[in-house]
């Protein structure tokens, strides 16, 4: 893998992955990061990387739905491997406006698969990043395995499920070397503050209400983002082609438990001026439609085959994450204001 195309590298997980590859891993090639820069992407996340690794990191502003532009990227940079993160990723947005999810997650993935198929045998690997949400919802017991049937419940999950099926089909039909990973909920640095954990950290710091959907007893299996990045790289290097790997955190928590832990840690790190615990900010709000009750991952396959397991516990990962948001208030202000989107338009044009 000399010239690795990373799509969506200016988003939350993509940023952490590029940092991990260049700063910590044994990857020795070059990364071409293609991102459209939606509200969720910020190239400033990697501006220090661009300076420190001028030969090994390139950013190209492009939409994966633009097949001609993507064809030029594949050829100009002699792409031989792909790690595909780019997606619309927020369930609540998919409920309000599913179109962009179909465009990017389904059509965009299809475009990349076609470009890879046309360039065989040059393409060594197409790794597709997916989610455990494709499996639908669990009851009180059980875990999602790689054999669990797909039952997506939100437009987001349905669009990811569709893209997973296409990736699998391109392996079966055309022999494209692919791997797929289905991961549980991530948290950590650079996550856009519309998702549960960063939203609650920032609202707690700012003394705003902490909106918990429904009864707050929905369960997610939380994984620290660096652990996800390590897993992806192990799969890319040594995962069996054509296979799917589930990645999880051993981190099952109800939303209420998560929010209470955030309140307690924030109280500890920044004692509230009022003297009142931030738990008092918790506000129960109307439930999300089609809200999946519980996600939990059986990750024994990746553990057995590749020796991967999460390093971070939820408590240690959450403390690191809160500290990161405390130390990066400027980043928060920038992504909330969308200021950098204007900067991007002036530097890279509008298309
Ligand atoms: P994110 O929303 O933070 O980032 C997505 C990135 O993709 C952004 O930089 C955005 O600008 C870019 N993008 C969107 N549409 C594009 C397009 N048409 N062309 C090019 N770039 C485009 O998302 P994330 O949380 O980093 O998730 C990354 C991937 O991981 C997604 O595929 C998501 O489904 C998957 N995933 C996320 C989680 C999670 O908990 N966040 C868990 C499992 C899987
Ligand atoms: P989210 O971070 O949106 O991830 P996903 O929907 O992909 O799992 O939400 C995580 C959980 O937190 C989910 O059960 C919905 C819930 N949630 C709230 O209770 N309040 C909120 O403000 C948000 C954003 C999410």
Report the count of strand segments: 13
Gyration radius over CA? 20 Å
CATH topology of the domain at 3-187 and 221-251 and 294-312: Rossmann fold
User: What is the architecture of the domain at 3-187 and 221-251 and 294-312 at the second tier of CATH?
Assistant: 3-Layer(aba) Sandwich
Distance between the termini: 29 Å
Strand order of the main beta sheet, please? 3-2-1-4-5-6-11
Bound molecules: nicotinamide-adenine-dinucleotide, thymidine-5'-diphosphate
Shape: globular
Query: How many alpha or pi helices?
Result: 13
In CATH, what is the class of the domain at 3-187 and 221-251 and 294-312? Alpha Beta
Describe how the helices and strands are arranged.
Elements: E1 3-7, H1 12-23, E2 30-35, H2 47-52, E3 57-61, H3 67-76, E4 81-84, H4 91-96, H5 99-118, E5 125-131, H6 155-174, E6 178-183, E7 186-187, H7 196-206, E8 210-213, E9 219-221, E10 223-224, H8 225-238, E11 244-247, E12 252-254, H9 255-269, E13 282-285, H10 300-306, H11 314-327, H12 329-337, H13 339-348
Helix pairs in contact: 1-8, 3-5, 5-6, 7-9, 9-11
Bound molecules: nicotinamide-adenine-dinucleotide and thymidine-5'-diphosphate.
Thymidine-5'-diphosphate binds at residues 91, 185, 195-196, 199, 211-213, 218, 220, 255, 288.
Characterization of this structure:
By secondary structure, the protein is of the alpha/beta class. It has a domain at 3-187 and 221-251 and 294-312: 3-Layer(aba) Sandwich (Rossmann fold). It is built from 13 helices and 13 strands. The strands form 4 sheets. A 7-stranded parallel sheet has the order 3-2-1-4-5-6-11, with helices on both faces. Strands 7-10 form a two-stranded parallel ribbon. Strands 8-13 form a two-stranded parallel sheet. α3 (67-76) crosses α5. It is globular. The mean pLDDT is 96. Nicotinamide-adenine-dinucleotide binds at residues 7-8, 10-14, 35-38, 40-41, 63-65, 85-89, 104, 108, 129-131, 160, 183, 185-186, 192.
């Amino acid at each position: 893998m000399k010239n690795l195309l990373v799509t969506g590298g200016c988003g939350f997980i993509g940023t952490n992955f590029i940092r991990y590859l260049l700063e910590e891993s044994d990857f020795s090639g070059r990364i071409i990061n293609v991102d459209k820069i939606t509200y969720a992407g910020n190239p400033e996340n990697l501006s220090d990387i661009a300076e420190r690794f001028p030969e090994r990191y390139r950013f190209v502003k492009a939409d994966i739905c633009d097949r001609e532009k993507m064809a030029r990227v594949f050829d100009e940079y002699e792409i031989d491997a792909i790690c595909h993160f780019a997606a619309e990723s927020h369930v609540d947005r998919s409920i309000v406006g599913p179109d962009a999810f179909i465009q990017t997650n389904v059509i965009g993935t299809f475009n990349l698969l076609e470009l890879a198929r046309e360039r065989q045998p040059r393409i060594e690997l197409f790794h597709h990043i997916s989610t455990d949400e494709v499996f639908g919802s669990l009851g009180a017991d059980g875990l999602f395995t790689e054999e669990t049937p797909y039952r997506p419940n939100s437009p987001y999950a349905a669009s990811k499920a569709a893209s997973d099926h296409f990736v699998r089909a391109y392996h079966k039909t055309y022999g494209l070397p692919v791997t797929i990973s289905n991961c549980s909920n991530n948290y950590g640095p650079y996550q856009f503050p519309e998702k549960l954990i960063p939203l609650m950290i920032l609202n707690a710091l700012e003394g705003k209400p902490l909106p918990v959907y429904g009864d707050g007893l929905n369960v997610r299996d939380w994984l620290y983002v660096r652990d996800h990045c390590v897993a992806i790289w192990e799969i890319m290097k040594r995962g069996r082609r054509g296979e799917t790997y589930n990645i999880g955190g051993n981190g099952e928590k109800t939303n209420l438990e998560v929010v209470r832990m955030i309140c307690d840690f924030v109280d500890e790190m920044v004692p509230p001026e009022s003297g009142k615990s931030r738990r008092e900010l918790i506000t129960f709000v109307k439930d999300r439609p089609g809200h999946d009750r519980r996600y939990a991952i059986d990750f024994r396959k990746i553990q057995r085959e590749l020796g991967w397991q999460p390093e971070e516990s939820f408590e240690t990962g959450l403390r690191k994450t809160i500290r990161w948001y405390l130390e990066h208030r400027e980043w928060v202000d920038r992504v909330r204001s969308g200021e950098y989107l204007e900067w991007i338009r002036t530097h890279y044009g509008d298309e």
